[in-house]
Every structure is written in C-alpha cells, then in structure tokens.
Amino acid sequence: MKQAIRLGIVCLARETYDFVAAGEIYKKIIAEIQKTEAVDWTVIPDLVISIEDAKKAAMELGKAQIDGLVCISGTFHLGHLVLELRKQTKVPILLWGLNELPYNGGKIRLNSVCGVNLNASNLYKAGVDDYYAIIGDSIDNDWIDAIRVIAALRDSHMGILGYHAHGFFNLSVEEPALFGDTGTLVDHYELSEVYQTKVSQLDISNREKQIRSTFDVSELSEAQIQKVSELAAKLDSFCTSNSLDALAIRCWPEFARDFGVAPCAAMSLLQSEGRILACEGDLEGALTMVAHKAIGAQTPYLFDFSQVDLEKNFALLWHCGVAPCNLWDGACQRTLDTYFAGGKGVTAGFVLKPGELSIARIDSARGKRRLFLQKAKAVPMNKDLAGTYAKAVFDRPVKEILDLIIKNGLAHHASMVYGDYEKPLEIAAQLLGWQVIK
After folding, report:
1. Percentage with pLDDT > 70 across the chain
2. Do 128 and 173 sit in the same domain of this protein?
3. For an engineered disulfide with 390, which of 219, 232, 352, 400 has Cβ 3.0 to 4.6 Å away?
4. Of 318, 320, 321, whose CA–CA distance to 305 is shortest?
5. What is the 3-state secondary structure (H, E, C) of 352-374?
6. Residue 183: which CATH number?
7. pLDDT per residue over 35-47, tens digit each?
8. Which residues is 69 bridged to in the sheet?
C-alpha cells in the first residue's frame, strides 16, 4: 500500500487564449485524477484567471494542508498567479503544461508551455527550487510518488535502539540536520527496553510455530528457538506500543551476549510482515527503506556490497542473515544458523529470489544529503554460504558501481526492492535539493 497524501490541483488561464478549451481539458483531468491510489484531492474547480482568483484559491489550498500542488497552465496566464499560490502553500509544485491544440485560424490557442516557462522562471528567481515540470496529457505519477516519499520521511516515527554498531562511524547521523532535511524526528531507546518488553506466552508460542514452519531449525537448540520466538514477539510488541514506523537496531556486539541470541532471525520474520527494521543502528538505511515502502515497494532489504567479482561482473548483495524471509528464492532451504557470535548468532540463511531490483541509499557527508540510486537484476545462484544474499548483475560494469560508491564515500548499506522504483526517488531528491549519485 502506498503512502496516503493530500494534493491540490488548480488550472491557470487567460481569456486572450482559448480558455474555454482549457476548461474542458481541465474537467477531464479532474475526473481522471480521482482514480489515483491513496490521494485525497483538493480541487479548485474553476479556472484561475485573475489575481483575486489566485488569492482565493491559495487560501482554500492552504487550509487543506496539502502535501503538494499540481499547477496546470491551461493557457498562458499572468505571472502573479503561481506566486500568489506559493504564498499560502509552501509545498512542492508540479508545473504541468498541456500539449498544444490544433491551430485555429492561424492563432496559437493555449500557449501552455510558455506558461510553464514563465512559472518556472518566476519561482527559480524567487529562490524556490521544489518545482518539477512536465508537458503532456496525463499527470506524472512518478511526481505523485515523489510527494509520497517526502510525506513519509516527514511523518514517520523513527527509533534507534542502542546506537550504531561498534566502529560503524559512517552510519552516524546528525539528528538536527536530519530533521532539517526531511522533517524526521528520531527517538532513542536502550536495548534493555526491548529485552524487558512483556509479551504473553501465547504470542511466543505463535511465533514459535511460525518460525518452525518457515525455517529449517535443525541446527538450533530448543532454547535458541525459544529465544528467537520470544524476541520476535518482543520486537513486534515494542514497535507497536511505541508507534514506530521504523527501528534501527544496534544488533551487535552486545545483543547476543545479553539477550542470548542476535536479532537477525527475528528481524527476518518481522520484516516479511512489513516491519521496517534496520541492522547495525543504520538510521539513514531505515529512512531509505521507509522511502521505498512509501511508493509501494514491498519488504525492503538492507544489504552490504559484500563481494564484487570484476571478472564475472557481478556483486553479492549480502547480509549476515536478516533479509525478509518472504524474499526467499523458493529453491534453496531456508535455515536458521548459528555461525557467528559464539553460536549465539541465530541468523536466517537463504538465497533471494531472482528479479529486477531497485537499489537506493539516503546518505549524508560533509554537510550534504545525497541519494544513491542503481538498477540491477538478481540472478539465480546456489546456496553456497551462510547469510541472506542475492547475486546482482548491473546494467553496466560492476567496477563502475564500486568506483562510484568508493569515490563518494557512501555507507556500506543500501536498500533493495523488487521492481522499478528509481524515478520517484530521483524526483524526490531533486525537490529536496539533494545530490543524486547514480
């Protein structure tokens, strides 16, 4: 399910052009946009022609607390109009130009594209950068999804459990800067708060049944199975009781020592149910997963670029065993393993399914927010090692991908999802003024 948002829509015109035709086109657009998933529309039904029209529309749109504004240049129009709208609605704007109609008596009828040019120039010279322009007969759904991303980052309740993992300084976040860039506020919790979360024996038993039916647990002791079941119930309850949309977890080195098992297996299970849980206290990784989820991508997986084979031209998108278990390839055996942390690791083990991948990473460095984007394809492979992983082939040499990551000092985690979800994130980054690395 995509992030629900509120959008406004308005059509600007001038009576010296074919505003009647523009009005008819606008009516059709209004009917069509009502079909858009998870959007609450505030529609200004009449053409906005005068400055007074614009002021009136701006007040109505401002009261509606919209997340974004669709501003159609039905015809060329006064330059005042979009600026009056901006006064009351300081939200990202889609400047939409219509295709020109057939000439009528040698006169241009709409001159809509020139209206878009006028609006863009006025906004840019006024210091407004969060606009995006299109020309065509249909709304840009990628822009709508970009607004979903921005709204999700602003509205999500993020938590960090503990801190980032030992020595992973590159995952640290300046929380005031994060709020300034995204609107995201982060709440801090101690690991012990999860350990001490009270859950019923019924919840633990239900989780145990789920774990036994999902994984081969033959390597685990009964005590370890109980610990994983208990932790799955505790993490789920903790996220629910604290109304958390995402939680970044310091999953080592203390977790296995103090609780008895590492959280990987429990996280694999809960993520398959839609929970956003990030390894190693990676808040920006969690934020990227939230962004993916906002545009309809299911069960993001936060991975390491763990192996790059330059000769065979692939990368291994691996992590120690935390991928959502529903991403399993259906061919290998899904296991719970104890290969690290002195036998207390208890991680998931399987190969991820093949398919088209979208990869992203919200990242910050040197006072700048960046967005790393790539497309790849997961291809079949044998289960040859522990952990959860996909063999990925990119649409260009993998060395170029590695060089891009290293040159820009990007963090070693990224979020991957199945399907093509690149464009909305790129537009969102543009609207937010972030650097795009791809």
Report:
1. 100
2. no
3. 352
4. 318
5. ECCEEEEEEEEEEECCEEEEEEE
6. 3.40.275.10
7. 999 999 999 999 9
8. 8, 93
Cα 101 to Cα 27, 28, 76, 139, 249, distances in angstroms: 16, 15, 13, 18, 56
Q: Give, for 297, the enclosing helix (H) or strand (E).
A: none
- Residue 317 has phi, psi (to 5 degrees) of -95, 95
| SS3 label, residue 178 | helix
Two structure tokens written together for 414: 């990224």
Q: Which of 222, 178, 21 is nearest to 107 (CA)?
A: 21
Both 294 and 419 in one domain: the answer is yes
* Domain containing residue 87: 5-139
Q: 334-354, pLDDT tens digit by residue?
A: 999 998 767 777 999 999 999
- Map residue 310 onto helix, strand or coil: coil
Q: Residue 388's pLDDT band (boundaries 50, 70, 90)?
A: very high
Q: Are residues 307 and 401 in the same domain?
A: yes
C-alpha gyration radius of the chain: 25
308 close to 398: Cβ distance less than 8 angstroms: yes
DSSP string, 230-295: HHHHHHHHHHHHTT-SEEEE--SSHHHHHHSS-SHHHHHHHHTTT--EEGGG-HHHHHHHHHHHHT
341 conformational bin, left if phi > 0, alpha if psi -120 to 50, beta if neither: left
Domain-located, residue 145? no
Q: Are both 422 and 364 inside the same structural domain?
A: yes
Which of 335, 332, 330, 331 lies closest to 219, judged by CA? 335
At position 46, the amino acid (one-letter code) is: D
| Residue 29 burial (CB count, 10 A) | 21
Residue that is written with structure tokens 């996280």 in the block: 267
DSSP category for residue 327: G
Please tell me the distance from the alpha carbon of residue 111 to that of residue 109, in angstroms, as a whole number.
6
Question: What was the pLDDT predicted at 59?
Answer: 98
- Residue among 297, 42, 249, 252 at smallest CA distance from 145: 297
Alpha-carbon distance of 426 to 162, in angstroms, equals: 31
Query: 69: helix, coil or strand?
Result: strand
